[in-house]
Amino acid sequence: MLRLAIIGTNWITERFVQAALEVQEFELTAVYSRNQARANEFAAPFSNNAVCFTDLEQMARSDAFDAVYIASPNSLHYEQSVLMLENGKHVICEKPVASNIVQAEHMFKVAEENNVVLFEAFKTEYLPNFSLIHEHLPKLGKMHKVFINYCQYSSRYQRYLDGENPNTFNPAFSNGSIMDIGFYCVSSAVALFGEPKTVQASAHLLDSGVDAHGSVLLQYSDHDVVISHSKVSDSTIPSEIQGEAGSMIIEHISECDHIVLKLRGEEAVTYQVPQVENTMTYEAQVFADQIKQGKLCEKAKARALGVSRITTEVRKQVGVIFPADQV
Predict the structure, then answer these.
(1) Using CA atoms, how far apart are residues 274 and 107, in angstroms rounded to an integer?
(2) pLDDT band at 118 (very low <50, low <70, confident <90, very high)
């Protein structure tokens, strides 16, 4: 059984711990929070003897865990991951793995130097129904156009409008639409098609300096991927892949629970396979498999670095600058 620690005591951390326990590969043995009482409170439902830390350096040096799930603000992913990797801990870090490509490349270098696994927690790629996209893609014939859409009005946007400065819209925390909602779109594109030849981006920035919403054009040798992302508006439009023989429709691509195939001259057909309710279960299993095999997944590494290269370029083109970019 792998001994798991967590950094960050929010709802997504709770969901991941539940997923990790469900795959029966992990036990929770350590929790970090800046507040001792909060750490104790988080650990209680999952473990009677988890060690609770309020000091990250002390935690990294401890022998209380083998692997750690990091779900802190984006701006902290790099330093916290490197600290854990340098101390011989396997790391699954919430998306995005880093603020920019320079940080991401260094993180994987540190992981390899210390013979530990670094894995970006992008769950969509490992969903059983996402695999159906790969399986049925050849039926579309020669591919030409892809539209990936994810627009969701942030629950924190009103706080921003009210004059507060929530993390979600604060460049100090390496946030904004392309690093959050848009990440799923870019990652899905890279998971399906690899890195593009060129990237063109536009966005509308808030006064805080991050993007509220935007568009990205990824150009491949024989097809284009158009990405629409927003944290200040909702959309009910699905994503779509168009080929010469028909199209594939994917609703809510981040959770991908089915696909619809509409071939020319034929009725639309829905394809769906069973998928567990807590969709983080699949990434937890992939992380465990890498640790047991003693090596990180090169495909996952390539996807993470490819996405980081794209989002770094997108931000450069639209003028979103993080403190991490100026180090």
Answers:
(1) 35
(2) very high
Report the alpha-carbon distance of residue 297 to residue 80 in Å, rounded.
Answer: 21
Topology of domain 125-280+309-326 in CATH is Dihydrodipicolinate Reductase; domain 2 (3.30.360)
Which residues belong to CATH 3.40.50.720 in the chain?
2-122
Confidence of residue 130 (pLDDT cuts 50, 70, 90): very high
At 246-273, the pLDDT tens digits run: 999 999 999 999 999 999 999 999 999 9
Q: How many degrees, rounded to 5, is the angle at CA 318 between CA 96 and CA 312?
A: 30
DSSP string, 82-98: HHHHHTT-EEEEESSSS
Model's pTM, two decimal places? 0.97
SS3 249: strand
Q: Each residue of 5-28: pLDDT tens digit?
A: 999 999 999 999 999 999 999 999
Residue 242's contacts (CB-CB under 8 Å, 6 or more residues apart) are 140, 143, 144, 145, 146, 147
- Contact criterion met (CB below 8 Å) for 188 and 182: no
- Where does CATH 3.30.360.10 sit in the chain? 125-280+309-326
Q: Where residue 327 falls among pLDDT bands split at 50, 70, 90?
A: confident
Domain 2-122 in CATH 3.40.50.720? The answer is: yes
pLDDT, mean of residues 171-177:
98
DSSP string of 18-35, one letter each residue: HHHHHTTSEEEEEEE-SS
- CA nearest to 322, candidates 159, 101, 105, 120: 101
Task: Give yes or no for a cis peptide into 96 (omega within 30° of 0).
Answer: yes
What is the rounded end-to-end Cα distance, in angstroms, of the chain? 39
